[in-house]
Amino acid sequence: MKIDSIVLREVQLQLVAPFETSFGSTTHRRVLLVELRAEGLRAWGECVAGEHPWYSEETVDTAWQISRYELAPLLLEAEPEHGGSCHDIFRPVRGNRMAKAAFENAVWDLQAQREGISLASLLGGSRDTIACGVSLGIQPSLGQLLDNVETSLAAGYQRIKVKCKPGWDLRVFEAIRDRWPSIRLSADANASYRLKDMDHLAGFDHYDLMMLEQPLWSDDFYFHSMLQSQIETPICLDESIRNRRDALASIEMGSCRVINIKVGRVGGFSEAIGIHNAAMERAIPVWCGGMLETGIGRSHNIAISSLPNFSLPGDVSASKRYWRDDIIEPEVEVSPLGEITVPTGPGSGFHVREDLIERLTARKDEVRAYALA
User: Fold this and answer.
1) Labelling 203: which of 287, 326, 336, 351 has CA 20 to 30 A away?
2) Angle in degrees, CA 133, 319, 16, rounded to 5
3) Catalytic residue among 163, 196, 320, 364
4) Is residue 196 flagged as an active site residue?
């Protein structure tokens, strides 16, 4: 594929409501978008790096620098044969997986458009619909959290995930279970506990959680394996899993029984598929986590979630939960059954609202192939 130019944009969007985790509260998003222009087609990717290096080392500013001066020139010079080529093209650049994912995912989307097939089909998807859960941030009060749980259940979401941290955990689980004894409930700690909390974490077993996500250090397998051997609640690893090798190590060590695959965290679709396949071969279920994406990133999450081992409801939810106006149309909607229909049209199956993106753009740069000659 001969790519003519790459356009980088930073767009700025306000969330419908603040989203709080153990890292802090997010009220708005600065998002780096990558647009590929090739053969009369346009394909888009989204970098999920945040404003601060809280979830990972990457930020929107570091991703912009790497994208503009390293990844864009490499891709323009390479003429990738397919989306899977990007892993080798970007090999000279260490790390920076979220920036790389934005480019690689756009190349996969471009390939699907050229072949006239859906992105989900190109990735190997086999589902017509995907099951949806919802992730609820830490709330100002327990009453507000319960109201949000009730609203989410009424909207059809099949799994409720609540963010937790020391001081906001057991009483939260107890209140939810008292009111809804049998719903699918999970907890996400975002690495906010330590091994000294093992006895406390064992208390989570009383609340029949589907999983406890990333309770300990964000780069750890070893201590998670110790914790998993002491508690019944399945541990799900998120931040610790950067690639297929990490997934294999965590499974071999008994560090987790579930894996959260975030396409941006692992560097793009190719690595996400590798993790999916390795986990499926070892009977470890996976699901797709969210990173407060716009509709572009959300459409890519829908596509990857159509693969067969995404057997648990993910965090792919409706656009309206986060944005007053999403930058794609139609906006992502969740059915009363808690499902999203996987698009079958060429590429992602959604139309990018370029007019809205232009209005939201705070900075923009274009790198052209002829400029590198």
Assistant:
1) 287
2) 100
3) 163
4) no
Residues 322 and 368 in one domain: no
Give me the catalytic one of 100, 161, 165, 262. Answer: 262
Residue 373 has a pLDDT of 54
Does the annotation count 262 as an active-site position? yes
Domain residues for the domain of 86 are 5-115+351-372
Domains held by the chain: number: 2
Q: What is the CATH number of the domain that holds 27?
A: 3.30.390.10
Instruction: Note the pLDDT of residue 21.
Output: 79
Residues 174 and 78 in one domain: no
Which one-letter amino acid corresponds to residue 124? G
Per the domain annotation, does 346 fall within a domain? no
Nearest residue to 204 via CA among 222, 189, 223: 189
Per-residue pLDDT reduced to its tens digit, 207-245: 999 999 999 999 999 999 999 999 999 999 999 999 999
Low-confidence residues in the chain, pLDDT < 70: 20, 22, 371-373
Q: Note the Cα 120 to chain centre separation in Å.
A: 16
Interatomic CA distance for residues 327 and 244, integer angstroms: 32
pTM above 0.70, yes or no: yes
